[in-house]
Structures are given as C-alpha cells and as structure tokens.
Write a structure and sequence with these properties.
- By secondary structure, the protein is mainly alpha-helical.
- It is built from 13 helices and seven strands.
- Helix 2 runs parallel beside helix 13.
- It starts with a helix and ends in a 7-residue tail after the last helix.
- The relative contact order is 0.12.
C-alpha cells in the first residue's frame, strides 16, 4: 500500500462519513455505539472523562473543512460541559481531556473570551489537585474518605498540556511548575527500566512517600496495559514539546521502543502486552494514541543530525504500520454506522470488550490529519 495515498484516501473517507454522522448526532455527546448508533452522555452523565473528544473531532473537522456544522456542534458540546465545571465532585485529573479539545480549541481558533474562561477554570481546578509532598496530581475522587487521595495514574501525562497552556497564556509559573513536578514524579515512579509503564501508583498522601502500584485497567499488577503505554508515550512527548526538557523526550523514546518491540506481526495491539498467551483481546485505541505519539517523536527528531533522522524514520514507519493495520482491518466506513474504529477496549477486566469508543475515533482522525497536514494541534 502506498504510504501517502492511504492517508489521503482515509482522510477523504473520514470527511465523507463524519459529515453524515455529525448531522444525525448534532445534539449528542457520544461515548460508544449501540447497534451502530452513537449513545449520548449529556445530562446526568456529563462529567464522564471522555466527553471532550466529540467536540475535539468536530474542531478537527472544522479546521480541515471549514464546514459550519462542525463548529456549531463543537460549541454545543463545550457549553454542555459547563454543568461539569460547576460540579466539584465531577472534576478530576482528566480536565485536559475534556477542555483542551473543546474550550481551549475554540479559544485557539476564535479567541472566545468565554472559552478562555472555561479553560482557565479547568486548569485551576486541575492545579488544585496537586499534592506538594508527593509532587503529583491526584487522580480520581473517592467517597470523601480519602482512600484514593494518594493515587496518581499515567493517564494524567496527557492532561498536563492544559497546565502548559495556562502557563503560556498567563505567564504564571505555578502552572508550569506543577506540570513539571508531576512529569518528573511520573518519570521516576511510573516508567520501569524496560520502558513499560505502571498504570496506578499510590503514594502516602500525607508524607508523599511511595506506597504501591496497582494493575488498574491492565491485566495485573506489573503487567503492561497498552493504552497506559500509549498515554505515557504521547504524554512524555508532549511534555518535551512544551518544555524542551530532553529527559522527557528520552523517556518517551524509551516507552516507544518498548511499545515497538511488542507490536504483533499483524500490527494490531492487545489490551495488555503481558496478557495470557491464549487471550486475543485487542484495544485499537492504544494503537491510534501510540501512533500520534510516534509521529510527534519522529517530527522532533527530523530536524537534528543524521543519526536522529535515521531514528525518526523508525518511529514514523512504525506509526504508519499501526495506522495502516487499523485502516485495513479495524475501520468501519459504512455511512449507516456512526463509529469508525472497532475493537476498542476500556479495561482488561471489564465485562465488555472490543467495542467502539469515541476517543479511538478522535486519535485515529488526529493521526491521519498529522500525516495529511490538516491537524489542529490541541495538546
């Protein structure tokens, strides 16, 4: 398959299909599909962590096509999330996932003061989750008993760009300091020597001392949940892009090298690289997210010396392999079916596996846009 032609072909298919899909889902905020039709997580499920990705898809499509329908849907998604901003118990470490693809994307395109305000409210809440003793951003909430007060997760690396954005806009160094301290803690306690990553690390919330690790959404403690690997790969790359700190790029490369060494021959990614040999469960979202990170690592290396250029080709070619494997085997282009990416899995031990998930579609589109020069960079 011609590497460039497949991406242009995929981009055309995305534009054709998504205009139809957007039109019949313009008032929804989808998470997955039921019988091929998007569900809606507005209303009493508005605080769900994935609720910014539909808006992100709309802004990516608006940026690439200029079609007003996408802007209108993105604005409605952004405004609906105000209910989340006003609910303290619904705020968590995933503020970047909800407000970078919506309010911050809107602000970057239109300069909207309301969108800037939303982005800053989300950034301030995220900064308020910082534990200064452990130098980490607390992940999930609990029932008020403090049982998860010391928990941090690798996913948070992808949310740090909200703080980098707040710093760039205000020049208040607190946002940058918190993001960098969390990234340094994650580099020390999440990333193992072989480049694999823990999902959850627990610290003593009072003293900040390391306490334990948990398997989280992967197969088991000490295993290698692939979406967590992808969050780490892309997340440390983003921290490098925002700070210029070479240690973050080196960490991203270490995670990327581990990821590459474990890719199956068919290019389709399992839920956990260390799941039992007889388990065939896949997670296409891990593949799409990792591809985005690999392309950004390649871009960062391409302007350096000849050795770095050779290295960059490995990352770019691997991203192409992951994406073409998805394109050829795990994409649905039927206009009557709302999702694109198939065989996505949220967590290894969930009852349901291999269904469509909205962030899978988002990151697949982002990766295709990177290859075709149409991306709105929202991170």
């Amino acid at each position: 398959m011609d590497r460039q032609n497949w991406a242009q072909e995929a981009a055309a298919k995305i534009k054709h299909k998504m205009y139809i899909v957007a039109g019949r889902n313009r008032h929804n905020i989808p998470y997955t599909t039921k019988d091929g039709k998007f569900d809606d997580w507005s209303g009493d499920r508005i605080t769900w962590w994935t609720n910014g990705f539909w808006g992100g898809i709309m802004w990516q499509l608006y940026h690439a096509t200029g079609k007003e329908l996408y802007r209108e849907i993105a604005l409605e998604n952004e405004e609906k999330l105000d209910a989340n901003l006003m609910l303290a118990g619904g705020m968590d470490h995933d503020s970047g996932f909800r407000w970078l693809p919506t309010a911050v994307a809107d602000y970057r395109i239109t300069g909207s003061k309301d969108s800037f305000n939303r982005g800053m409210l989300a950034a301030n809440d995220m900064a308020g989750r910082f534990n200064p003793m452990g130098r980490f951003i607390r992940a999930w909430n609990d029932n008020g008993d403090g049982s998860k007060a010391g928990w941090a997760i690798i996913d948070c690396m992808m949310n740090l760009p909200l703080l980098y954005w707040a710093y760039n806009e205000t020049k208040d160094p607190r946002y940058l300091q918190i993001a960098v301290m969390h990234a340094d803690t994650a580099r020390k306690y999440f990333i193992r020597e072989d480049g694999s990553s823990n999902h959850i690390v627990a610290f003593d919330p009072v003293t900040g001392e390391y306490a334990d690790t948990f398997g989280g959404q992967g197969y088991a403690k000490g295993s290698s949940w692939t979406r967590g690997q992808a969050w780490a790969l892309y997340g440390f790359t983003l921290s490098y892009l925002h700070t210029g700190n070479e240690s973050y790029l080196n960490t991203a490369k270490s995670v990327a090298n581990y990821f590459i060494s474990n890719i199956p021959e068919n290019g389709l990614i399992p839920v956990d690289f260390r799941q039992p040999a007889d388990c065939t469960l896949e997670d296409s979202t891990a593949s799409a997210i990792a591809a985005c990170g690999l392309l950004e690592i390649a871009k960062a290396l391409e302007q350096r010396d000849e050795l770095s250029l050779t290295e960059s080709r490995i990352y770019r070619n691997t991203a192409q392999k992951l994406l073409t494997s998805l394109y050829e085997n795990r994409c649905c282009w039927d206009d009557n079916c709302d999702h694109i990416l198939e065989k996505c899995t949220a967590a290894f031990h969930d009852k349901e596996h291999e269904f469509s998930i909205i962030y899978g579609d988002y990151f697949f589109i982002e990766a295709v846009w990177k290859l075709t020069g149409q991306e709105l960079f929202i991170w």
